[in-house]
Amino acid sequence: GSWNPTTRQVWTTAIVFGLTIFWFVLTRFYSGDINAIDFTVYYDRPNFQTLLGKPLFVESADDSGRAYRSYFAVHAHWVMLPLSAFYWIAASPIWVLALSVVAVMAGAVYTLRIVQATGGGGLLGSSGALAFVLNDNTARTLNYGFHVEVMYAWFIPWMIHAGLQRRWSSFGVAAMCCIAVKEDAFLFLFAVASVLALVRRPALRRIEW
After folding, report:
1. pLDDT tens, residue by residue, 41-51
2. For residue 204, is pLDDT > 60?
3. Using one digit for the tens of pLDDT, what is the confidence trace for 2-18?
4. Is the distance from CB of 154 to CB of 106 less than 8 angstroms?
5. How sure is the predictor about 202, in pLDDT bands with cuts at 50, 70 and 90?
6. What is the DSSP string of the chain?
7. Distance of CA 4 to CAs 1, 126, 154, 182, Å?
8. Is 176:70 a contact under the CB 8 Å cutoff?
9. Are 160 and 192 in contact (CB under 8 A)?
10. List of residues 6+ apart from 38 with CB closer than 8 A
11. Residues 66-77 as b or e (16 or more Cβ within 10 Å = b)
12. Helix axes 94-117, 121-134, angle to 10 degrees
């Protein structure tokens, strides 16, 4: 049969790649070579303010309409509330830097599983996962240090894979996580639902000549 990586091989590779990418993200952060407006102003400092009883409070910003108010007045980033709990352990931006990498690597693992679930095999799936990690869009996203929309890289592939496997409880959790990222999540939910509907209806995939 065709080659498929073992679970141990998948997670070992993911950890190695994740640590390598995190090193790049961390060194860029310490060199000041990240988008500090999004990362520091809208995520890191508001996470700290959440600990002080001011949920996602923006201390100052480049946009006066967003300064000195909760960022919830601008975007529905509800997923940031549980994520800010890490700041109780240590109030450090390293948490969200690491979370960016975790989200990308989790998305890559799900990409592998999606390709395998659709009959692509381990080699094609591994290539897809590698492309997911190394493409330009991922690099640009990680250049932010952290942006909440990087969580889509984890939650959307998770949702697709759960739908393909008919694991509807997992699908529901993944969908709720997507909704908690931002108010535009309904666009991705509609897209995923449409794809799954087509995949699960063989008659719709056949072209009658």
Report:
1. 889 999 999 99
2. no
3. 889 999 999 999 999 99
4. yes
5. low
6. ------HHHHHHHHHHHHHHHHHHHHHHHHTT-S-HIIIIIIIIHHHHHHHTT-TTEE---SSTTTTTEEGGGT---TTHHHHTTHHHH---THHHHHHHHHHHHHHHHHHHHHHHHTT-HHHHHHHHHHHHHHSHHHHHHHTTS--GGGGHHHHHHHHHHHHHTT-HHHHHHHHHHHHHH-TTHHHHHHHHHHHHHHHT-HHHHPPP-
7. 9, 9, 22, 35
8. no
9. yes
10. 144, 145, 147
11. beeeebeebbeb
12. 150
Question: Is the model's pLDDT at 1 over the cut of 70?
Answer: no
Residue 192 structure tokens: 């995923």
| Alpha carbons 206 and 195: distance in angstroms, whole number | 15
Report pLDDT for 203.
44
- What is this structure's pTM? 0.89
CA distances from 164 to 2, 135, 161 (A): 21, 25, 5
The length of the chain is 209
Tell me the pLDDT tens digit for each residue of 23-69: 999 999 988 888 777 888 889 999 999 999 999 999 888 788 888 99
Residue 147 tokens, joined: 């942006």
Tell me the per-residue pLDDT of 119-132, one tens digit each, with 9 for 90 and over.
Answer: 888 999 999 999 99
